Amino acid sequence: MSINQSGWRPTAPEQGKGNVPASVTGNKALMLEEALIFEIGDSHTTGVDFATAPARAATSKLGALARKAPIGLPGLSEPETVRHYTRLSRQNYGIDLGFFPLGSCTMKHNPRLNEKMARLPGFSDVHPLQPVDTVQGALEVIHQLAHWLVTLTGMTSVAMSPKAGAHGELCGVLAIRAALEAKGEGHRKIILVPESAHGTNPATAAFAGYSVEDIPATAEGRVDTAALKARLGPDVAGVMITNPNTCGLFERDMREISDAVHAAGGFVYCDGANFNAIVGRVRPGDLGIDAMHINLHKTFSTPHGGGGPGSGPVVFSAALTPYAPLPFVEKQDGQFVLVEEETAGEHHAGSFGRMVAFHGQMGMFTRALTYILSHGADGLRQVSEDAVLNANYILRSLDDTLDAPFGPSGPCMHEALFSDSGLAEGFSTIDVAKGLIDEGFHPMTMYFPLVVHGAMLVEPTETESKAALDQFIAALRSVAERAKAGDPSLKTAPHFAPRARLDETLAARKPVLVWKDPAPLAQAAE
Ligand SMILES: *Cc1c(COP(=O)(O)O)cnc(C)c1O
């Protein structure tokens, strides 16, 4: 057996240091190295038995188009295939393995009931081009979910089709643009965004053709309402505000801000990604908001991360409803119908068009509705209460060790924010994050929000038990104390992971996306 074919590559950079010899295989105990499928497979191997192909006519109909060289796709036997993908899956970290403290991401347990419902053939096997009378049940799911989203937010309507939070932001801002243009106010070209905003907010505004102006934060981490009011005027199209904000704080002046923006002729977009902290307790419609996206994949569970499917329905106020995108599911004479044309009725006359080819993410809709119905009103309320309680437990358990810049101004909402102030000279947030990996935890969100130096943003969500939080707190406390004491071993952490410190900037800027045949290696091994 050649070393290359079995995928053994003794290359782990951290091995062979100190008194611990490197393993011949490159494996670390039962954490197995795995090469690319192109390196371990070969085109003569297959896990499938094909009958011998019948003899073909001497002259191929393909003519000059016939392939001259082998296609070069790697083949594996069945057990090799199973091992390859199982080994790769073990190199991933997910919410089903352990606590995922990423702030702003709302990584929570996904109830298996959701998965069971989403896999029902009537939901999972439908096609977007099926005649509507064959998908009445699927349309009813979209219709019911739309009803609950409008009810929970106290808004007027909802566009279900946007496929993620950022896509929902674009949908909301395009509706604002359509409404302004309809009023002959298309010259309003400025969107105000607080300093603490998620990066997607200014990106969305710029993408939709607006200029972005920053609004400063107060010392206690909230929007500076006076500064915002002072900037309002006839050139301002609107504001984009995250509530609860990315410092983990509730924007208490929201009603006052909305009234001022409306009085100045603008619209209020709310980034609702953090709705998990207030669902069942606050209705954004009562705060004067005109448009808000809801990340179904955050607040209403459903797996996300790694570019997996998202869903970002956008709820609208009465003022923006006529401009919302198509399609809508409506019930007419006991039948669910898809309203697909701008001419379909006065409610949709000003629609700015469509966000996507079809109707949105069916699998996500089914999961979210299952989550809403299985929790009920009291259950959803408890979700937000427990999420906030868990975050405050983390904040108060660690604010004696880590600097909590907004800790003194009161309780937080769904996430606890710390800074790198107080770490030893030369130590930063990245060292704490890498140390956490050795303790078996996925790092928290780092260096965001930008208003806090070396930010560490921890969002526990409601689904972590007190025991899980206590273990995380003990780990973060220990790593933070090492960083404060200047423990040099932390600068080279993680020590137990298969890879230590990678050049993430280089990987992002110059990704190696093309596989090159390592023929010299293969020959050497034979
Ligand atoms: C997650 C998030 C977004 C973007 O949502 P996606 O679904 O990832 O596009 C926007 N704003 C905030 C505050 C978020 O947490």
Automatic annotation (TrEMBL):
Pfam families listed in its UniProt record: Aminotran_5, GcvP2_C
Cellular component, GO, one term: glycine cleavage complex
Domain (Aminotransferase class V) ranges: 185-305
Positions of region (Disordered): 1-22
Catalysed reactions, semicolon-separated: N(6)-[(R)-lipoyl]-L-lysyl-[glycine-cleavage complex H protein] + glycine + H(+) = N(6)-[(R)-S(8)-aminomethyldihydrolipoyl]-L-lysyl-[glycine-cleavage complex H protein] + CO2
GO biological process: glycine decarboxylation via glycine cleavage system
PANTHER family associated with the record: GLYCINE DEHYDROGENASE (DECARBOXYLATING), MITOCHONDRIAL, GLYCINE DEHYDROGENASE, DECARBOXYLATING
Name of the molecule in the record: glycine dehydrogenase (aminomethyl-transferring)
Naturally occurring in which organism (per UniProt): Sphingomonas aurantiaca
